[in-house]
Queue: 3 jobs
Job 1
Amino acid sequence: MLLAEFAVDPDTIADWKALALIEARFGFHNGAVIPEFPKTWLRDLSQKARKELYGSAQYSKVEERLRDLKQGYLVGSGRPYLGDKSWFENARAQRDGKPFHRIVTPHEADADDVCDIWGLSDSDFDDLHDTQIQKKAKSYSEATCLLLANSKSIKFVDPYFSGRRGYQKGLRCLLEAAGMGKRRNFAKVEVHTSDLAVEKGKPFDLEHEKSLVRQNIPPLLTAGFEVIFYWWKDSGKKEVHPRYLMTERAGIRFDRGFNIPSELDAQEGVTDVTMMKPQKLNTEWNRYRPEATVFQSLDNFRVVGTAQE
């Protein structure tokens, strides 16, 4: 599994030193995120900090750490929360529908998936940062949905991306995982490809690649949904190679890119997926900007979806 939700009882942070452990253990880059469960989770902690620490030197540090959690650690839960039940009862009730990877609470431990924050071990985080997934649309969606559904700006980087069938399926499943057609707060979605996107045995033909995108991509996108395509040339440096899914919140490196094979046997194969460290994400994000000069820009244009919801 890549990326998992650890439900953290607000009472776990009775001692504000627990925030340091959360920063070290959790975060998108570590493959372990914290759902806002209930949806007032962060606000409740902020109010608690103000009540207990306001006026002290520690208060500003705690507030800064809570702001950092919002960007790189927290995700929306979307789960029901009953006010007449305890936090633990609400968390435990999710096992029958959308279970958490772990329930972290200082109060009770009635199963293997429940523990105190100080009792978390390395085994609780196994394979969450770096794992392998099958080259199936479902596997791609499951691995990326927590990140994509909680992001507004998305960049797909694949030097071989084309408007051909396998890439159509890959793009469609990832955008559906992001909530295409279900939410409208996307800021920007981009696909970055290169002059390596060629048909086998043929030279690169930019106009042909553009026509494939114009013809095949709009029907995959819900009406009005926009994606900007960029083609790059690295001037012989051969640096336009890694495949990334990057957002303003985190990034994932894909070993094999976003092409979903049409043959069922090929879909049984696996690809390595790894969460990107924040510094690496920042570096790669900036390399793929319209004004960047790392690579030579060949062309870019916007496509607009035509599929009816």
Job 2
Amino acid sequence: LTSMDRDGTGQGFDLELTRAVSESVSIPVIASGGVGCLEHLYDGVTQGAADAVLAASIFHFGEHTIGEAKAYLSSRGVCVRSAASSMVAVQ
């Protein structure tokens, strides 16, 4: 679920929209659009009720690493995949 109004802004997910959709559908919802800090990822899961979260700019522009994001979420009690299980082998 991408909020195009928030995408690239760094203001965080549209939590109201994310929560409304998450509570209305029976399929997993991945929140996308607006992440500017690691706290926004946590908010997407806790306040937005998303099943997963997605970010790009904070990684592409070197503000944080994926490892930092996973460690932060894990420290806040959010279940994350280990780095090894999220790696894809390229042949």
Job 3
Amino acid sequence: MAPRRGQIYFANLRAGPARKRRPVLIVSRDERNRWASDALVVPVSSRIRHAPTHVILDSGDGGLPQTSVALCEQVTCLDKGVLDPQPLGAPVSAARMLAIERCLLLSLGIEPHPDFPFAA
């Protein structure tokens, strides 16, 4: 399986009886997603809370059934084996990914460089 950047998958996030399925947004590069056994993801929640590191995803974005939020401060690496076989839908829009990239930079404490394509 090679998930694509911007796609949303359901993932099994805990083993055993506490297993929880949650949507996650793929943020790793497509080149990496083709060869690696894992992927960098941002969890998605339907519990909307506004924060500088959150990006609102409208119902339908990436196939989401309801308005949700990408929790960019919780970026993590998941084994691709915990992802459902198919994404929820098409990747989120380029504009939405740009907002997620900005929030990832903020979450990681990386100051945008003026020449960086998505500098504020």
